Amino acid sequence: MDSGELAVLPEDGDKRAGPGRDRGPAPGTSVYILVTAPAALAYLLPWELLPPEAHAALLAATAGLTLLLAGRDLALAFYHAFLWSGLVSVEPAPVDVIWIVLGLHMLLSPGSRRCLARGWRTPLAGLTLGLGVIGFASVPGAADTGRALFFQGVTFYLSLVAVWFMASFRAADLRRAAILGWAGAALLGGLTGIAGSLGGGDYRTAFYLYDRLKATFKDPNCFASFTAFPLLLALYEEVFAGRRVSATDGPARPTPERPVFGRWATPLGAVWLAAIGVAMSRGTWLGLVPAGAAGLLVQVRPPGIDRGPRDGPAEGAAKAGKASGRGEIPRRAIRLLTALLVSLLILGVAGVAPAILQRLELKPYDAKRWSGQAQGLALWVERLADLEGEPFTGIGPGHYEVRFRYAAHNIFLRAALETGTVALLLLLGLYAVALSRVGQVIRGAVAGSAGKAAWTDGSAPAERPLATAVFAYLVFTALYGLVIDTLHWRHLWMALGLAGSLAAEGGPGCASKAVGASGEGGDHDE
């Protein structure tokens, strides 16, 4: 089997197909460094100032590198793909080319194709594809058919990408590699922008907009919201690291997941927090607070979940585990406080502390934003009350700006007015099902319900920090969507792909393969 192929795991959980058997050699750290180097150099270049020929060369180089890596190790290829997900200041973005090339590679590999055919069957996939398709019904009635078709085409492409992730990320090593790439992209963007603050002239202009860090994005809000996910994951890894969870079927045991950041969670979190501060995105600041709290609140187990016997070995072990973790709490608090202080120091050096305080004030364009939303909402309610066609088919994808000369700044209002009430219901349903299913995974991990929270390869219970970060980030994007139009933000669909893979755990899935010395494929384990 080719190294880029996947194997479909049997539904009966046959251990012979599980991870760790006939495992081939995984790429070492040096290989990942070599893969990171081209992206790191590319992030430093002001692509907005370079000619189109340079952009074309970049796209060709990334496509060729993707095929090379996919033929060697699929997890490495996914890391490479997501490492480029933060360089989107030019279109088409390199990550789009990489995703298309990598997706076609998997579709042309028989093993990957069979796996993906089964892996996409998750409750979220149907809602995601429905959201990507429903808008095409609004295209014929749009004032500008070409604009509407292009806009909905982008939405459809992103929905396909999300469903592809839902299937692929059921392989734990592919999911972890993608998250590492996402984190690396946020780190490269943040460091590039912070370094750019020390420079000046055109170089600074390439990474800043209105004296706010946009890094390698087109807008500071995009960069800050992109960086919010790895920041949340680092936070929850620090909070939950080494904690013990009680189980109904045995003694308490440490959560067995392999951390994504490990001991680097705190320093990385400090850099990401500082970068978000330099971006001065009010929506990100205000959204992270309730989202972070939601990630902690979802840990509370409903009364219906069995907490295990009050007495006996399980209870005694749980108490012992809790006692053994008490000494770790002060150390965690010290590390988190240190990360906060380091972030404040970076912000002080960058000289943006006064600007951050000014950003917390209401601005003149805030009133214009709310008035624009009120106009759109009034039109949708009027059409809905008259039972005319527009509430159900919409005025056309991408036409909010055409009708009101001002952006929607609300993903839910855009869906309702542009592509109809059905699209709004699909979007709301997508969020509701994603949050519900990921919340069930988290509570299953807390309760120790191995039957409900097992990976498809049967290797470990659900990853509590990761599932919590995905849940919190979904809450974050939903809140942010009320004040910013996030429909075409790639990281929204990346998060939905992660949510879909977590929600699908427990059914037949995939395990990635690596080429062993004998040429036979073996599963990567976590």
Entry keywords:
22 helices; 526 residues; two-stranded antiparallel sheet; single chain; mainly alpha; three-stranded antiparallel beta sheet; 63% helix
In short:
By secondary structure, the protein is mainly α.
Structure overview:
This protein has helices spanning 29-44, 52-72, 74-83, 94-108, 110-119, 123-134, 145-168, 172-196, 201-207, 220-240, 265-279, 282-297, 313-325, 328-350, 353-359, 364-386, 390-393, 400-404, 411-419, 421-447, 464-480, 490-503, and strands at residues 6-8, 208-209, 212-213, 244-247, 250-254, 510-515, 521-523. The strands form three sheets. The protein has a three-stranded antiparallel β-sheet with strand order 1-6-7. The chain has a two-stranded antiparallel sheet with strand order 2-3. It starts with 5 loop residues before the first strand and ends with a strand. It is built from 22 helices and seven strands. It is mainly alpha-helical and 526 residues long. Residues 1-24, 243-256, 303-329, 448-462 and 511-526 have low confidence and may be disordered. Helices cover 63% and strands 5% of the residues. It is globular and about 60 Å long.
